[in-house]
Amino acid sequence: MAYFPPVPAIRRNHIISKLRQRGAVSMETAVTLSDAGVINPNAFQRITELLCRRGILKQVENRYYLGIR
Hints:
Blueprint: H1 7-22, H2 33-36, H3 45-53, E1 57-60, E2 63-66
Antiparallel strand pairs: 1-2
């Protein structure tokens, strides 16, 4: 049996953590993922889209902020 690391969960937690550290909690404080310090911000775009659909992230143009507190 092969072991597959939980990449989507790791990526989700990384994005949320970086935005929280940066203080991106409202439309006024929204930042790009690269400004937040997310490693390789263009990778795993599907995970970012899923976070937006679930309301965990909110998007303003190319910037993001946490939709949860």
